[in-house]
Amino acid sequence: MKAFTYERATSVEAAARAAASVQGARFIAGGTNLLDLMKLQIETPTHLIDVNHLGLDRIEETPDGGLRIGALVRNTDLAADRRVRRDYAVLSRALLAGASGQLRNKATTGGNLLQRTRCPYFYDTRMPCNKRQPGSGCGALQGMSRSLAILGVSDACIAQHPSDMAVAMRLLDSAVDTMDANGARRSIPIADFHLLPGDTPQQETVLKPGEIITSVTLPRPIGGTHVYRKVRDRASYAFALVSVAAVFGKDGTARFAFGGIGAKPWRVEAADAAAGRGAKAVAEAALAGARTTHHNDFKKMLVERTLASVYRQREARA
Ligand SMILES: Cc1cc2nc3c(=O)[nH]c(=O)nc-3n(C[C@H](O)[C@H](O)[C@H](O)COP(=O)(O)OP(=O)(O)OC[C@H]3O[C@@H](n4cnc5c(N)ncnc54)[C@H](O)[C@@H]3O)c2cc1C
Ligand code: SF4
């Protein structure tokens, strides 16, 4: 690990100012992703700004009936919150499908949204990787790409977005609330928050230097039957090969979001529109434009089968 300096921020404004003014500064929350990357020297911050003591660890009701989740709310606390379990069960289930109990106790809402890909070549510093070292090439394109993305990919990068939580938040049309170094706040629809790789896979979100996530806002509950189905290589402590978040309304409508297959949490309106025609039709709509490799072509069939399982779960609950 490279040497770095450390400060414990005392206000959100001061944290954002410090991050914008010190070259190479990074926020640290639970540290469950950042510290691993620092040990491998994939991330080499010069200065760490600890954001754990800023009072951003509360879950509050909003005036229009939604919930505001502080950026420092731990994944365990969010999954267990009575209001989340009752009104946003898909989010609670997605969180509990991620990582392990110990990790969820540390991992935060903001850090989870910004966790980096699990592409094996991103972690192997002997291999080329455009995301880790822009312009160096992509080891995965001609390598082992079984776990990687099939939607939203580019010639520069086919890495998948790893978060389970973000898939449920995408389904629920959440917004990411931020503050920049000048104290200006903005609310970014989660659909616009993560970027596709294009020619610049190192740029993963629309956050500006120094901009800090303060909370994530969920709109008012949408009701319905909530399902989160995650398919992975072992029953726990593994990232999704494919995951499906779904909410089924009483009137036959449904909405779907997907993990493990997209360069960002994936949702398309055409898939929602196909809900009445069953799993195969939803899969076809969701997979429009999919670009697979020899190793990950199986994900197309897996999406359809996972959706079939999701429909069965909905029927069982009804
Ligand atoms: C073995 C293992 C298995 C895992 N399995 C899963 C899984 O199955 N599913 C899943 O979804 N996740 C999984 N994870 C990932 C885990 O969920 C993330 O590591 C965690 O959510 C990151 O949160 P953190 O608070 O620890 O982030 P940190 O490591 O502290 O930070 C991550 C990034 O976010 C930035 N950051 C943090 N907070 C803020 C903020 N408020 N504003 C702006 N930037 C911020 C940091 O600068 C850093 O770049 C796994 C992790 C491990 C180690
Ligand atoms: S897929 Fe992306 S993260 Fe993986 S090696 Fe290629 S450029 Fe790097």
Topology overview:
Elements: E1 5-8, H1 12-21, E2 25-28, H2 34-39, E3 47-50, E4 59-61, E5 67-70, H3 75-80, H4 82-87, H5 89-96, H6 101-106, H7 109-114, H8 120-123, H9 165-171, E6 175-179, E7 185-189, H10 190-193, E8 212-218, E9 225-231, E10 242-248, E11 254-259, H11 269-273, H12 279-286, H13 298-317
Helix pairs in contact: 5-9, 12-13
The structure holds flavin-adenine dinucleotide and iron/sulfur cluster.
Could you explain the architecture of this structure?
The chain is an alpha+beta fold. It contains 13 helices and 11 strands. The chain has a 5-stranded antiparallel beta sheet with strand order 4-5-8-6-7. A 3-stranded parallel beta sheet has the order 1-3-2, covered by helices on one side. α5 packs antiparallel against α9 and α12 packs across α13. The longest helix has 20 residues. The termini are far apart. The mean pLDDT is 97. Bound molecules: flavin-adenine dinucleotide and iron/sulfur cluster. The site of flavin-adenine dinucleotide has 31 residues, from β2, α2, α6, α7 and β8.
